[in-house]
Write a structure and sequence with these properties.
single chain, 560 residues, mainly beta, 6-stranded mixed sheet, 6 helices, Laccase
Amino acid sequence: MLGKIAEWLKILVVLAFLWPVLVQCRGNIRHYKFNVMMTNVTRLCSTKPTVTVNGKFPGPTIYAREDDTLLIKVVNQVHYNLSIHWHGVKQLRTCWADGPAYIAQCPIQPGKSYVYNFTVTEQRGTLFWHAHILWLRATVHGAIVILPKHTLPYPFSKPKKEVVIILGEWWKSDVEAVVDEATQSGLPPNISDAHTINGLTGPVSTCSSQEGFNFLVEPGKKYLLRIINAALNEELFFKIAGHNLTVVEVDAAYVKPFETETILTAPGQTTNVILSANHKNGKYSMVTSPYMDSPILVNNKAATATLQYIGTNNSSTTFTVPPPRNATSTAFNFMDSLKSLNSKKYPAKVPMKINHSLFFIISLGLNPCASCYRGFRIVAAINNVTFVMPSVSLLSTHFFNKSGVFTDDFPGNPQNAFDYTGVPPQNLRTMEGTKLYRLEYNSNVQLILQDTGLLSPENHPMHLHGFNFFVVGRGKGNFNPKEDSKKFNLVDPVERNTINAPSGGWVAIRFRANNPGVWFFHCHLEVHTTWGLKMAFVVNNGNGPNESLLPPPKDLPKCF
């Protein structure tokens, strides 16, 4: 009897020792509440009513640890329909919480609420959340910080402090009014009036009293900067005077560390860098500025902020010159330096055997519009299909097997081949439809994204919901399957959720379709998404409940 008691005591001691680890593996439940409201915000010496979350611009940062479950109640107190997307969160089997309006859900109506319920699985790093309807994400956005498990430290030295830096754009006018005017005319919308760093522009010529973000550092210490591009329509450079940055992560995936003076980030992308405070004192300018290597109108105004060493008071600021707007070599050098960490703990699981080999051409076009300026409307397309948004949720339509809302015949290849980066065809008209592409569960996909010269070549940051992918190749001109495929990096390609299809070139990505649901794929330049540069993948259920989409939550918003 005493022997059995001793054995039970040993078991209890072991369980007491393991209990903290078991709790960490299960994760915690974290509750957040987002009150979406109108708030008067002053920028550029001008005040306007602005859609915000909890009265903040940018909105609150969500903190979680890997394996945590998040319950985020969103209450819509504005007159717009609303939905929130948790950009980069894989949403394994919880597509209902993904957020894009009319894709994964009907929007939250004014005066209504919805609880987004999802678990962060096999992810750690920096992501962000934003509105996913109309152009509300101009001011409705914020950071998501996913800390690693307690048992898995960072693969780099722990910094003294972590700082979120959100890059964005600001319009003095009502953004929705700007979009409505452009929609009626069929022409591009007005560009933004300023760029922002954590919601502030810094002093500008038209408003010298405008404050900027200020960041205090201690000499000799290291800091982790979590940089997010929340801009609507512009790729951005970022640099700090007198300091190099060590890149350690992009899109919540670790990379082989490398040092750089300037980073490039497209809308929807995140970049984590280590800053070494290697000066004794002083103030140093932080600057973000646009990157555009095509004849496209952009906002050329740089936003500034200040890095200040503790104990520095009245010293002058050391400034830096931003890269030229068309600094393609700087942009390409940065992108070419990105490689997956591909360590034992964080291997690069690149799909090798391909089940779906897709080739998507990205283009602009002109479709007839009797009420528009000059009788046509600028549109955008993938494989010459301009996506038409439905008036009900595609995910609900798929789950309940309803018909008449979408078809699953999206073309996997261009229907008419031409010299994509050469002389464009004379007919710039596109077909319109709500077409999806269907994938079997666990199938491996290779997707070539080819830019074209239709109207104008341009970079397109393409974002895939529900998955990360590996960027196995990139090049200029037209993709050559025989020659370019031989150069693919299948060992340590960078892992992302948003990637640039380069201006006048192509990019190749691979992913495994191991997440059932309806997953949006679109350009993260909001103007192009508005014009129809989007589609969606339908991923079928696999075998059994663990490979199947969960049922819809009871409070899922309805379309009226």
